[in-house]
Specification:
Number of helices: 7
Structural class: alpha+beta
Oligomer: single chain
Strand order of the largest sheet: 5-6-2-1-10-13-12
Largest sheet: 7 strands, mixed
Helix content: 25-40%
Strand content: 25-35%
Radius of gyration: 23 Å
Distance between the termini: 76 Å
Number of strands: 14
Order of helices and strands: HEEHEEHHHEEEEEHHEEEEE
Length: about 290
């Protein structure tokens, strides 16, 4: 009699995360400070300083490789159901079954690598030069003033941009890389009203696909008998930067609605709304502002 081992379940959690990533957002903030200024009827400025994390970098390739290593399942006594040593014949059968699936696993790994590359603007996340390619891609975009590679898909960045309120705005926008969960978005409404949402600044927001991915990984890890620390920092699953920062909106317009804890505070630019972001943040920052003078 054989059952799924904790190691096998860890591999299953890994593969589940890889599959989910192919259809979900894989860019998230780390430690940061960000501010949006709306201090004129038709102008805005936005800054983001801190970490930005690409989950699809080399650590995921290492996860996939670990998941493809042969690990024997435990054997149990048919009568007592107590664990026992597997016989040579049982181990040989397990190995034979594993080897028989090698071609299918290789084909799936190739397909997933191609999908990851397509998601990252043609950059192969398993390439040793992938981080530098991504750094250069970011620097080619307007507003990215500093991009420093910290390793394992984490970059320390400084982004600053100003413009007119003639169009919607979203951060980040990266050429060739789909973004399903922007950090911050600004939507213009009739009557000089601006809606600001920051879905990427809510670690536990149900609309944040990355939160769902990590929830699945933690759930499958629990099935395997792993603690939260083991799931978050174990050998099979990469460490993730902790989301921690401050997002503020400075405006001299009329604040029609917001979901801060304390409401607006007076400042030199008019009024300031401030959100403190942590791994416990459930509600994405949001505000509705009339910028008419």
């Amino acid at each position: 009699m054989t059952v799924q081992s904790p190691i096998r379940l860890k591999a299953a959690a890994t593969l589940a995360a890889l599959s989910l990533l192919l259809s979900a957002c894989f860019v998230t903030p780390g430690k940061f400070t960000s501010q949006l200024q709306l201090t004129g009827e038709d102008t805005f400025s936005f800054t983001y300083d801190g970490e930005i994390f690409f989950l699809g970098m080399a650590s995921l390739a290492e996860m996939g490789a670990a998941a493809n290593e042969f690990v024997p399942t435990e054997c149990y006594d048919d009568d007592t159901y107590e664990e026992r040593d597997c016989t040579s014949a049982e181990l040989a059968d397990q190995r034979s079954e594993w080897d028989a699936g090698a071609e299918a696993r290789a084909a799936k790994a190739k397909e997933e690598a191609e999908q990851f590359s397509a998601m990252m603007g043609g950059i192969d996340p398993t390439d040793p030069e992938a981080a530098e390619e991504l750094r250069q891609l970011l620097l080619r975009h307007k507003g990215w003033e500093r991009v420093e590679d910290k390793g394992e898909g984490v970059f320390d960045v400084s982004y600053s941009i100003s413009g007119t309120l003639s169009h919607d705005f979203q951060f980040p926008v990266l050429e060739g890389i789909p973004m399903t969960n922007p950090f911050v978005e600004m939507v213009l409404r009739d009557g000089n009203v601006v809606r600001i949402n920051a879905p990427g600044f809510a670690a536990q927001n149900e609309n944040n696909p990355l939160g769902g991915i990590m929830g699945s990984m933690f759930g499958m890890g629990a099935m395997a008998g792993m603690s939260g620390a083991e799931v978050g920092a174990g050998e099979s699953i990469p460490d993730l930067p902790v989301i921690e920062g401050t997002f503020s909106i400075v405006t001299d317009g009329a604040i029609l609605a917001n979901n801060t804890d304390e409401g607006p505070n007076a400042s030199s630019g008019g009024q300031t709304l401030t959100w403190s972001i942590s791994p416990r943040t459930k509600s994405a920052p949001t505000a509705l502002i009339n910028v008419s003078r």
